[in-house]
Amino acid sequence: MTIYPNFLDIVKHEIYIRFALCSWRFFRSPDGSGEIARNENLDPTPEKQSQGAPMRICDIRTTIVSIPFREPETWAFGRRLGISNVIIEIETETGEIGIGEAVGYPSVRVVKEALNAMRPVILGRDAFDHEVIIHELTQVYGWHHFRHTGGCALGGIDMALWDLVGKATGLPLHRLFGGTFRTKIRYYWYVPNNELKLMVEVAQQGVAQGFDTVYVKLGTGFERDLEVARKLREAIGNGVKLRVDANEAWSDGTARELMRRMSQYNIEFFEQPLCFYDHDGAADLRTALGLAIGANQSAWDEADILEIIKKRAADVVLTDQHQLGSLSRFSRAGWLLATAGIPIVKHSFGDLGISTAAAMHIMATCPNFTKANQTHLTVLTDDVVEGGLPKFTNGCLALPHEPGLGVRIDRQRLQKYNRCYEEKGEFTSYGPGGHDLVKELEDSESVKSTTTQ
Prior knowledge:
Blueprint: H1 7-27, E1 57-75, E2 78-92, E3 97-103, H2 108-122, H3 130-139, H4 147-169, H5 173-176, E4 184-186, E5 189-190, H6 196-208, E6 213-217, H7 222-236, E7 241-245, H8 252-262, E8 267-271, H9 279-289, E9 293-295, H10 302-311, E10 316-319, H11 321-324, H12 327-339, E11 344-346, H13 353-365, E12 396-398, H14 411-424, H15 437-452
Parallel strand pairs: 5-6, 6-7, 7-8, 8-9, 9-10, 10-11
Antiparallel strand pairs: 1-2, 2-3, 4-12
Helix pairs in contact: 2-4, 3-4, 6-7, 7-8, 8-9, 12-13
């Protein structure tokens, strides 16, 4: 359980003042006129370019892919059969291509439309102006008011721009972000909900492969949640961490009783036990029980993270470049939490290899990524990057060292899983069956149209 440093009580108000001043500078013009700060020329093909040879963007291509899980994922909000994300390729006039990945939340179709709406702002711009571009998309072009969906799309655009910058400079991103604290990134072993006997077997497989943290989603019922925790602790022994995630499924009363009883199984921390709006409830729960709480949905953006620090509402914060909307924001969140003495953990909506590689550069360059991070790679059947699914060594992945993100698209795999999307539709995260209701409706209407002709 985190012991907050005493200095935090003294400086927390200063943090807010500094954040407010920074926000004012970011959002308003330097001359104090009250005009929104923006590039001097917001035309999609601005005359002003960064010093040196610009990388002017001439094309943006998006491809939706659907890659199945080895077994379905069940969580508090539904059942998912795989991952459906948008692969992004941003090309410059000189032929360089930067790659990115946008996660399909709340729907991959919604995120692709968001990307299409961002396209006119990006075309013609210099990729070196990536921070300005992301800022303008957020603050000038309206995504500030739709941060959740906007971030899922912006995160993909941002990493493709960073990939271009890394390739142009000949440097991997971790060099551009200031150097590494670690070159091996630690991940947990994910145990999907299933029959208890199968869950026990899967947990033991992870331990045998060297993973030191086992993760499971709860929220399937009071007694069932207790039994899952008991069985998994018995299966993995006392030398392996056990992390549980309720995904907002518990009420305050249920959380208090269930966490108290579950604590006998030595839980590393309880992730998102309450509704993500309830910072005060999380703070009260943490104080009352003396048990470690992780904030994920509650820590969606920078303002949420500041609120968590102020209210002492979590011992661990879980976020990522898609929740926050860029790799730079992800890095800044990590360093802010380091100042407050709070560990940060990489959250995964359902990342494929491109997004995984991008995040690793941030996880390597912040001091407080000290716990096992989230991944779905251990439950996927394949990936879209060259080499397919990566090999974990004792629960770790090696940091990429090639320029940019350090991974490349496998064209055959990209085409294969784009066909999978076209044929099977989206692997949605919401709903009891994991079915693509939009595709089912379109197919049904197509059949009706054919039969009436």
